[in-house]
Amino acid sequence: MNTQTKHRDTQVRPAFTTLIRSYFIRHIQVFFYSLGQLSRAPLSTLMTCMVIGIALALPTGLHTLLKNAQQLSGSWESTAQISVFLKKDIRPTQAKKLKSDIQAWPDVISVHYISREQALKEFQELSGFGDALKALNSNPLPSVLVVKPKISKASERATERLLSKLTNLTQTDKAQLDMQWVRRLYAIMNIVERGVLILGFLLALAVLLVVGNTIRLAIQNRRKEIVVMKLIGGTDAFIRRPFLYTGFWYGLFGGIIAGLLVSFTLISIGSPIEKLTTLYQNQFQLKSMTFLTTFTLLSLSVLLGLIGSWIAVGRHLRDIEPK
Amino acid sequence: MIRFVNASKRYSSGFDALQNVNFHMAPGEMAFLTGHSGAGKSSLLKLIALLERSSRGQVIVNNQNLTKVSRRNIPYFRRNIGIIFQDHQLLFDRTVYDNVALPLIIAGFSHKDIGKRVRAALDKVGLLSKEKKYPITLSGGEQQRVGIARAVVNKPPLILADEPTGNLDPELSAEIMGLFQDFSDVGVTVLVATHDIALISQLPYRLLTLKDGKLINDSQPDS
Description:
The complex is a heterodimer of chains A (323) and B (223).
Chain A: H1 2-10, H2 16-40, H3 42-78, E1 82-86, H4 92-103, E2 108-114, H5 116-127, H6 130-134, E3 144-149, H7 156-167, E4 172-177, H8 180-221, H9 223-231, H10 236-279, H11 291-317
Antiparallel strand pairs in A: 1-3, 1-4, 2-3
Chain B: E1 2-10, E2 16-25, E3 30-34, H1 41-48, E4 56-61, E5 64-65, H2 74-78, E6 81-84, H3 96-107, H4 111-124, H5 140-152, E7 158-162, H6 170-185, E8 189-193, H7 197-200, E9 206-211, E10 214-219
Helix pairs in contact in B: 3-4, 3-5, 4-5
């Protein structure tokens, strides 16, 4: 009897505070243990991370390019202008009077007057048809008022109204909004944006499947270990933990690879794009991934890794029971 | 410590592994469970460790009615039982020390405590010098002793052993049995399933005999 009580005394459970501390220490241990497990098979780990990285790099890269394009077209929009071609019988003094009238309108920022002579000179310089123009005996070009409207994305209608107001002036031959193509570009970009979103969703799904499948294989490889853990009283959470951390690492490394792929791609296409934009007399520098994009990419990929492994563990852990 | 009340186990294949088994083991008692293969020894141990649930009747272990232990609580229940297998169930990618430490890590013991308890358990089975070795480098008898150290390292009140001497020669078997006797002496309940009649006939312990899933004999050493 004496020995019995003695035994019960020694069969102590850890104290509550010890349990809490052990719990956190255990998490840290598993955090690094799972990393160590991955580093033991560097090639297959790298391949899995590369698959995840490439899958995530595609939508991320497209997103960044799209953001660049939007920024570029945004700067174009602010330079939108209405060209008012005046009737040929309007004399320069009349045109200048009209210019100051329009300038007073509340929805106009500025008006620039180009006389017929100026227009001809500019055309000769820029078009390369100078010699052909010399063959004409009179200046075929009208004088132009370049009206810069107050503009914002929301005030599309206001711009239209201004356009019709300018068209209806008696002095006007024709008024043209040089922004139509920017609008078309916007519409196209909206479609592309939607496409990137769908592509991103599908590739995220692919990442889930890749992680899920990799973790499923890991579970199968460690079947015996799981059985032993269950036999000696390991809870589901305890057994699940290393696999979840493995998923976390896959997600993190995949995200980092995706980030690097996108960055390198942007750097390598940066200078050709710069060359292209200088040809269009435009100062433009390709922006790399923003901090927000990088942060979103990494947290999303980690989240996908965790969810993928969670699904795999949830599905397969119950199937493995000691016999 | 263990009480079976009309416990039966029928597998989904329709095979009756146990039929109306009744017996009781007091805390600190040691007993052998015997019978030919397929008589239901393993099934009986599985019911105690909640590896299987009884189809009918009651199994009560450590004052817990096992039909009332939910799936969630099975791990916590098992921590009170040290289970020893014929095939050791050791993890070969970990050292002897890590294998024995596993139940303590699972239970959340502190690092310092784990070291002390693992060395105490290894000392008990005489393998203290081999803590850094991998199980694959040990002999069959040594592997079995590692399995025993792991089963007792968190000092459970109940030890179950399924054919622990199945692959060992008589001398090693006697050594293993000696260990079980030691645990029993300090108040641990020990139930050993074995068909090694020659070995257990020399030992003064209670003998439960199964045949075709029925308990046909329950003999105390004195009677």
